[in-house]
Write a structure and sequence with these properties.
Layout lengths: L40 E4 L3 E4 L3 H18 L13 H4 L4 H7 L2 H6 L22 H11 L4 E7 L6 E10 L1
């Protein structure tokens, strides 16, 4: 039964940001040579260190948009931030768990049920690119810039003392 993939397809997207983009890595060791808020990076076997968009972040953004669309169509969708979320209400056999899930949890998954969609990491080059094309794309993608920012005090509306920080975009 599980030896064949049924109803399987692959959708490839090309993401081109119109402005600065920062996807911050939470599990990276601090590097004093990098800005305070640095882009998430990984080590590529051929090219060394490169930035990328994690599949989990892409899946979260798509799920959030899908949930907003479903709510706009008056389709009941659970709120994962509340205790009444789908995963908190379901126990027992798989058919019962699946029947109790909202459409977003059935599609994207929950704590009790695996999702039907899988998102892979978005590297700065197409999957079929050769070594030279990957190298050229990595050079362009890794050309980030630093920007200085000042934290704002919410009470006074002015700059907050000691709140200067840098981002990588």
């Amino acid at each position: 039964m599980h030896r064949r993939a049924l109803n399987h397809f692959c959708l490839r997207l090309e993401i081109r940001p119109r402005g600065p983009l920062l996807v911050q890595g939470s599990d990276q060791a601090p590097d004093p040579s990098r800005p305070d808020l640095a882009f998430v990076r990984t080590r590529h076997w051929e090219l060394g260190e490169t930035i990328f968009l994690p599949g989990t972040g892409l899946k979260g953004a798509v799920r959030s948009h899908a949930e907003a669309t479903l709510r706009g169509l008056d389709v009941p969708v659970c709120d994962p931030l509340r205790s009444s979320a789908c995963s908190a209400n379901t126990t027992g056999a798989s058919p019962a768990v699946y029947a109790a899930m909202c459409p977003a949890c059935r599609t994207f998954g929950s704590l009790d049920l695996a999702g039907r969609l899988d998102f892979t990491d978005a590297m700065p080059w197409p999957p079929e690119a050769d070594s030279e094309a990957r190298r050229a794309a990595a050079v362009v993608a890794n050309a980030t810039e630093r920007r200085a920012h000042v934290g704002i005090d919410r009470r006074t509306g002015g700059p907050r003392s000691g709140a200067l920080y840098e981002t990588e975009e």
